Amino acid sequence: MNVGVIVFPGSNCDHDCRHVFQDVLGQSVRMIWHKEMSLTGIDAVILPGGFSYGDYLRTGAIARFSPVMGAVKTFAKDGGAVIGICNGFQILLEAGLLPGAMLRNKSLHFICKDVHVKVENAATAFTEACESGQVLKIPVAHADGNYYTDPVTLAAMQANAQIVLRYCTPEGKVTPEANPNGSLDNIAGIINPEGNVLGMMPHPERCAEEILGNQDGKLIFQSLLKAMKVKV
Amino acid sequence: MSLVITKELIAQHNLTDDEFKKIVEILGREPNLTELGMFSVMWSEHCSYKSSRVHLKKLPTTGPRVIQGPGENAGVVDIGDGLCVVFKMESHNHPSFIEPYQGAATGVGGILRDVFTMGARPIALLDSLRFGGLDTAKNRHIVKGVVAGIAGYGNCMGVPTVGGEVVFNDIYSLNPLVNAFCLGVAQKDKIFLGTAAGVGNPVIYFGSKTGRDGIHGATMASDSFDDQSEKKRPTVQVGDPFQEKLLLEACLELMAGNLLVGIQDMGAAGLTSSSCEMASRAGNGIDLDLTHVPRREPGMTPYELMLSESQERMLMVAKAGKEEECIRICKKWDLDVAVVGKVTGDGILRVFDQDKVVAEIPAKSLADDGPRYERPFSPPGYQDMLTNLNYDALSDVKDANAALLALLESPTIASKRWVYEQYDHMVRTNTMVRPGSDAAVVRIKGTNKAVAMTVDCNSRYCLLNPYEGARLAVAEAARNLACSGAEPIGLTDCLNFGNPERPDIMWQFVMAIEGMKDACEHFKIPIVSGNVSFYNETNGLSIYPTPMLGMVGLIESADKTMTQWFRDDGDDIILLGATREDLGGSEYLKVQHSREQGSPPYLNLETEQAVQTCVLQLIRTGLIQSAHDCSDGGVAVALAECCMSGPDQTRGAVVRLTPGRQRTDSMLFGESQSRIIVSAKPAQRQTVLAQAQQLGVPAAVVGAVGGASLVIYLGDERSTTKTIDLPVATIADRWGFSLERRLSQE
Amino acid sequence: MKAKIHVTLKQGILDPQGKAIEHALDSLGFKNAANVRVGKYMEVDVQETDKAKADAQVKQMCEKLLANTIIEEYRYELV
User: Which coarse location class describes where this protein primarily resides (chain C) (predicted)?
Assistant: First the structure.
């Protein structure tokens, strides 16, 4: 599989995403500078974490106007698989590829720690290697991960099973205490109605190797490979 | 520039009459204002090390692995596989008091630039912080600002802050310390130095534009504080981590392209220091034309342009003919870039503005010929009063449970989770051991190796005996690395002291250097980079001497990495090393008796070395499950930490300690050195004890992991009194949330 | 012309920064302070002499980039 990792000025998890796909999963990876206009030959697109344009106006607000985003939109419209992680998720929201917006964390602090998320929909291209209801331990690292959307959109997402990951306790209970940032409905990750665009705040690329003591994140990427019918 | 150089003007520039005379001698004339400014920053304590240099020379700086020792932007040490680590620690104390967020943020920015200027990609940051107690709103404001500033900069850069230490003591209320450490990895044959070699080569400015920020930051850092210091706010620089991230990527791309001769960041003293230091190292001169320097504000004078400390700027010397390629790369990363001069052969730093020469100084005079002082030193009159402590007058502990809880809640010992959760400590996916163990460990991708890092200094020990305190700091840092499975390969220091013009402060400094020297020579650890921060003093009150150490260790096989927490119920708990009567200078005396007195713990370097060799051997042979060094709060606190610091789950422990003649408090909370708590499967017990015996290290099975409480019996089997008996849930809560609770006071 | 633009979170959307400041004001003794909302203030020089045209441009800037209208509202004045 040819994975395209988009590099915005200020992206800082781009190398980490390349490392997982290339060195851990053996796929070919192309780093795509944000000024490129074409995604020819790419099978899946990753919008990595970081602080695109310093996040100085709003997270993701400036990156959505990067030249490459036009190609990403077309790619997504044509059914191509897109994953936005952390800042990548924020960019997808600003670009309108996913519904909603991010607010500052309830604590007002940047927060970096392991959290638990429950796989609420295991029938997606990004979760099919997981069991339904499975609890994954994945780290978060963000200051603006407090997901918000209006009640109508939320109801629609709930009805369409678009909420893929929700913050939960290690035992799998979705409680306010397990919510690290104040996200509406404990939302940690969502997909678009068509099911080919995923945005998630936790960083699966940070827990996909034995040497780092946790491989739960690998399941997200293995799901994608499975969906794309790639032999690993 | 027809301004007359008056006595007042010279004094305002923190230059002495003798220093001014020397300047006139060098130039053969009176300097103009721009030149006076340039001399004043380059000859400031901060840039010239004029009070410390004669002593720093005594430190060991070489070794088989050392590729670059002190004198460059950072030190470089070989780790094999064609790779090296590049690291340094630097202070940003004064700016962090005046404006905590920006002061700390730009401190991080500066140390990152020092490392990537050498051609290394930064992969880890650590921070050593000293604050006043958390009972005043002002101190809490400083803590919150500094932590947010470090987070704001490091997180945005995508360099993980993997560890550090935070100590609270009211002596730091008006002089907090912010010492930032950074480590990067580079190809051994691709190290870049700050040198302006090759006459005719172009000198290129790139990065941010120049504004009026921080003019005279370097002289501010060389001056004591008074009540007016908060009014000096305009001299604090503002950091732009996004710009620095672009600068980092641009630098690494420039360096990959075989385009550069030398490169240096514009840190303290900005354009002046970078140009004269690069020229001086190569024995050359530079013609610098200010006309082309990118500016943020109109109307800036040559004085301001040469002295500005605007952040995120670099100066490079390119190979002739490669200007266009350099400019293209800088523009790709949206950086300002301009050719501002060329290398000359006459050794003169000549500054032009619109075809007019505005400064003309021999580069070497500015960079290297600053004054050197052998300042007088003598121990302070109060030293004996500090060390003489009559222990008989202090009652032994009555309620050991309460004493242990008080220690665990003391901010210095309490969990620093509130701090490190604000730092991205996992980005770059190398972090094997996260903050909260004895040392942080990051793997080196593409190899089987890992690097361990720790920052340490017990400044109370240094106050009571600066020589011993410095030795103890080296020993503790090395011990922390050993507990992680790493062998020390190099050291960087950040020497924070008061006013060196005072003989008692100078004495602390000289003694600390001697202590570091003796310990480093014994352990064969070279000091490859460092920084001195004097004048940490307000209204005559000086900080405790704080020679902060950042030590780096190598783990040849990353799978042999160790952590401090207990793993499985039923494991043996084994104490390596002997417990002496060592209450002097302990956190316990401070918390329970409000005393910061006595002699610091006894340290024998041979014994220390044997204990470290022993734990390393146990880790490498896979015999043990955990290893944790006993430091602040003694064996009781160390055991509690082993129980509750694990990432997923806490463990209980039942332990029996058998005192000789020691007091109970000394047995539990004394800070005897060269002690490590390890845990091992009972099946390995005999082998572990035999290995220790072979190395002459005292070792005893003192208990077992298990249960829901930490229980400590004192005395032989006949004694059935539980001196300590606390549910792990209780100690974990008190220790884990203490900082958060204190900081949330209004 | 200069546009002076204010962007704040919409009424009804939790403003954690505003809440924290309100709390701090209260503890400093400003008992009458309520409903603190934190926002951004931006100044933009618009090279345009026709007020209606400038107005239309600034409105577009706000809609497109300066505010995220899912969570934020904006207002501006032209001087």
Answer: cytoplasm
Average pLDDT over residues B462-466: 98
Question: Which residues form the domain of A68?
Answer: 2-227
Q: Specify whether the CB–CB gap between C74 and C62 falls below 8 A.
A: yes
Residue B418 has pLDDT above 50, yes or no: yes
Question: How far is A85 from A90, CA to CA, in rounded Å?
Answer: 8
Q: Buried (b) or exposed (e) across A142-154, using 16+ Cβ within 10 A?
A: bbbbbbbbeeeeb
Q: Decide if A166 is inside a domain.
A: yes
What is the Cα gyration radius of chain B? 26
Q: Which residues of A touch B429 (CB under 8 A)?
A: 16, 19-20, 205-206, 209, 212
Does residue A232 sit within a domain? no
Q: Which of C13, C17, C68 sits opposite A61 (nearest CB)?
A: C68
Closest CA to B160 of B561, B441, B463: B441
Distance CA B184, CA A162 (A): 42
- List residues of A whose CB lies inside 8 A of any C CB: 57-58, 61-62, 65, 94, 100-101, 103-108, 146, 148-150, 182
List, in order, residues 6 or more apart from B5 with CB less than 8 Å away: B30, B31, B32, B33, B36
- Domain harbouring C7, CATH code: 3.30.1280.10
CA distance B536 to B539: 10
| Beta strands at B709-714 and B722-727: parallel, antiparallel or unpaired | antiparallel
Count other Cβ atoms within 10 Å, centred on residue B53: 15
Structural domain tally of chain A?
1
Domain residues for C43?
2-78
CATH number at residue A49: 3.40.50.880
Concatenated DSSP letters of B147-188? HHHHHHHHHHHT--EEEEEEEE-GGGSSS-EEEEEEEEEEET
- What are the tens digits of pLDDT across the range B424-456? 999 999 999 999 999 999 999 999 999 999 999
Q: Quick check: is A205 catalytic?
A: yes
Distances (CA, A) of B277 to B250, B316, B362: 22, 12, 11
CB B628 within 8 A of CB B638: yes
Cα torsion at B41, B42, B46, B50 (round to 10°)?
-130
ipTM: 0.97
Total number of domains in chain C: 1
Least CB–CB distance from A211: residue in B151, B157, B443: B443
What pTM does this model have?
Answer: 0.94
User: Per the structure block, which two tokens stand in for B251?
Assistant: 């630098």
Scanning C13-42 for CB atoms below 8 A from A yields 13-14, 16-17, 20, 40
CB B480 within 8 A of CB B112: no
